[in-house]
Amino acid sequence: MKKRYLKITFLLCISAAFLNADILAQTIVIDPGHGYASNGSNPDGRTDTEHATALAVGIKLKNLIESSCSGWNVRLTRSTRNGWITLSQRRAISNNWRADRFISIHCNGGGGTGTETFWCNRSNSPQSANSRFSRQVQDRMVEKGQWRDRRSVEDASFIFHLGVLSGNNAVGVLSEIGFVDSSDASKLLSDSWRNRFADAYFVALQNDLGSRCNSNPPPPSGDTQAPTTSISASGGNTQSGDFTANFNDRDNVGVTQRFYQALEQYGNNWYANRGNGFFNDNFNEFYGAYTQNAGSWTISNGRMRQSNTSVDNTRLNSYLSQNSGLPYLYEFAAKVESTSGPRKFGIHIMADDVTQDQRGNSYLIWFSGEDNKVRIYETINNTLNFRAIGNVNQDNNWANYKITYSPTYGVIEVFKNNTPILKWTDTTPIERGSSISLRTNRTNMLFDDLKVYRHRGGASQVITAGSSYNKDVRRRNGKIKSLVKDAAGNWSLSGNLDVTISSLSSRVFEDFIEEPDAIIKVYPNPTHGQLIVNYPGVSKETTSISIIDITGKTLRTIEEFSEENIVIKRDISTYIELLPEGNYLLKIKNKQISKTIKFIKY
Fold first, then answer.
1. DSSP secondary structure string, 196-246?
2. How many CA atoms lie within 13 A of 432 on its CB side?
3. Is residue 557 part of a domain?
4. Where would a tag sit more exposed on the chain, N or C end, judged by fewer CB atoms within 10 A?
5. Are 465 and 478 in contact (CB under 8 A)?
6. What pLDDT, in 10s, does the model give residues 78-128?
7. What are the Cα distances from residue 294, in Å, to 282, 363, 550?
8. In this structure, how many other beta carbons lie within 10 angstroms of the beta carbon of residue 478?
9. Is residue 15 part of a domain?
10. Is residue 175 domain-shared with residue 274, that is, in the same domain?
C-alpha cells in the first residue's frame, strides 16, 4: 500500500515577533504551490499535474477577483511555470503586502481521494480566524468541487507546522485540492473543474470577509447629463418595403453605445421578430411565445406575476435568436412582492437549452433582496458557476433593469434605474444563444416591459419590411425604438418612430407571428374539460391534432385545413370532456411543425 505523503519542505515553524496592526482590509495573496525553477529544474519534486493545476487555479482566482472586485488588491506569489520561490519568500510576499487573506494552493499525493484544508496556530493571526477561514474554504471546495470532505484541521495536529503559514501575518490556509495519483486527477486536469475550484475560493473569501467586495463600477466622474436620441425615416413615415431609419444621438461628452428595436403590431399588442434578435412584451395578455417549466405565471393588470413561493427555480422561457455577434441590450421592469424569504429573481440570457434546469449554457443575472446583491453566474453544461457580485438595494419598489452583453468581447454590464451596479468580462464569451428565461426563487414577483434591443453602429440602420418571416417589420403598423448610453453610464429616454408599411395588411393577434412553433399554446392546463389549442396553420395544408394516452395509444385525431398562413385557435373541448382524469399528450403536426405537449385532465 502506497504511503500517503503531505508535500511540505519546510519542517520548522518560525515564530514571528510582531503583529502588523495595519493590515489592509481587502488584500489577497494567492500562492500557487511549488513550480519549476528558472533553469527548468523541479526543486520540490512535484508532479506536473500539481505545478500546472495550482498555477491555473491561482490565475483564474486572481482574474475572477480583479474582474469582480474593484476594491480588492490581489497578488500571486508565482505567475509562471518556472516561478519557483522558497517558502520564506512566499511568506514575505504576504507580509510585505500586508495581506488580509492568504491561500496556498496545492494538490495531494499518496493514492487517496478528496480535498482537505490546513491552518497554522503559529501564524500571526488569531487561531479562531484561521480555523474559521479553513472551514469556509473546505466547505466551499467540497460543495463546488464535489469532493469527498477529508478534513479542515490545524496543521501540527496532523503532521507539523507549515512553513508558508507559520509567521504569516494574514489569516491563511493551505488547500490540498485533490490527489494527483488517483481518480481525482481527471478533475485536476479539467479546465471547467479548475474554474469551479477558483469559484470555491472566491466565494469562501467573500463569505469570510463578510462579502466586502466592492464590484460596483467607479462613479461617472461627475457627468450626470443623460444623452438623447430621436429617429426619422428616409422617405417619411409611410414605407412600402425596406427603409433606412436615421438616428439623431446627442450627448455633452459622447455616446458610447447605441441600440435599436423593430416592433410590429398585432391587435392591441406590440411584439417583435425574435428570429431577428428583437423581443418585446408589455404583458397586456399572455404571449403565446412562452413556455413554462416551473412556477405560476399569470397576467395581472398588465403585468406578469409569478406567485409560486415554494419553487426555487421557476422558468418562463422564450425563443430569441442571439446570433448576430454584436451587443444586445436586455431590459425589464420588476417589483418584488414578497416581504420575506429569498426575494430572488433574474434573467438568463444567451441560453441554449431552456429545457434544462440551469438553461444549458447561458449567463444568469441574479438579484437578491436577501443580502441586497446582484450576481452574475455563467452556466456551463447546465452547471452554475459564480462569476461576479455587486451591491444593489432591493426595496420592494418598481425598478428598471438593463443588461448589456457583447458576445465578441464578453463584457456584461448591469444597471438598475440607469445606474451602473456591476460589470464583468468573460475571457471565453458565449457567442450564440437561442432563448431568454425569467427566473425566481420562492418569490412572489411582478415583471413588466420585457424588451431586447440590438446594437447599431452609427446614425442610420436599414430596417427590413415585408411579409417574409425574416423581415424586421412584417405587419402594416410598425415602430422603431432607440436607446443610447454615454461613457459615464447615463442612459437616454427611448426614441420612437411610428411607421406604416403600405404593402402589408393589419391582422388580429391570431396571425402567424414568427417561427413555426412560436405561437403553439394549449390552455387551460390542467383542464377540467375545456381545452383551446393555438397553432400556426400552413396555407393549403392540413394540420393533425392527436390526443394520446400515457400508453402511447392515439385516442382521437382531428384534422384542420388552412387557407393561409395564420394562427388558428381551435376549441377541442368536445373531445376532452369525456376523457377520464389523467395525463395525456397532444400532438400537433403539419408540414412546418411537429409538437407534442403534455396536458392534465382532472
1. HHHHHHHHHHHHHTTS----SPPP-TT--PPPEEEEEETT-SEESS-EEEE
2. 5
3. yes
4. N
5. yes
6. 999 999 999 999 999 999 999 999 999 999 999 899 999 999 999 999 999
7. 21, 19, 21
8. 26
9. no
10. no
